[in-house]
Amino acid sequence: MKNIMKVKDVSKKIKRRTIIDNMSFEINEGQICGFIGPNGAGKTTMIRLLTGLIKPNEGEILINGIDVTKNRKEALMNIGAIVEAPIFFNYMTGKEILNNLVRLHPNIPKKERESRVEEVLKIVDLDKRCQDKVSTYSLGMKQRLGIAQALLGNPEIIILDEPANGLDPIGMKDLREIILKLNREYNITFLVSSHLLDELQKICTSFVIINEGVLKFKGTSEELLSIDKGNIEDIFIKILKGQEASA
Ligand SMILES: Nc1ncnc2c1ncn2[C@@H]1O[C@H](COP(=O)(O)OP(=O)(O)O)[C@@H](O)[C@H]1O
Ligand SMILES: [Mg+2]
Question: Distance (Å, rounded) from C-alpha 83 to C-alpha 144?
Fold first, then answer.
């Protein structure tokens, strides 16, 4: 199975405090990997490391075998990432925003820009609302526009940082369906963070669980569920409280 992302012995200190402590995990092609940990666990910091926004003090991050720290531009070619909740200009329409962003992709020829924008709008089910100003969009629609933005460059992997935050049940369901569709029909690998295990448990095929900058679990969803016969909440608490990271 192809490794899309490999995190090897990565540590990150911010102001002399260790935020990420010697973490190692892999994401394989085709996975929907849940990146789970309580608030303050280090998820956003790790995602910022993965996308080369900050550099590790120790260790290595490889994307398709390319070192992000040494060769950021090349490594990130295959990544669509939404690190923060996407912020768009409210006075613009969804389509106008994507029309501007598609120009930033040098490998999309000029004459294909328009069709590419229409294609991604359709994939995230915003084609009917694309002429409306973003100010009229729900949070879920803004998230989907963010995913459309990430899709423009035809990424192999999409990283979403807490996309479920603030979504209502319907927004959550739409988000899950889009992730599943992109995974199954377009073979896009996902890393999706959340502070709630049960939020993502329905769609994730693998999990990386961290707490206070330390890896607590990595494995498939079957391996996770086999930890305890109890409910998913019990499993989460058990992992956070002490169970050592399994191989
Ligand atoms: N730029 C920064 N300066 C100081 N502390 C930071 C900075 N970024 C993150 N931290 C600290 O690192 C820890 C992990 O934060 P973060 O990665 O945002 O966690 P999560 O995304 O899992 O909620 C927190 O204790 C946070 O306060
Ligand atoms: Mg965060």
Answer: 14
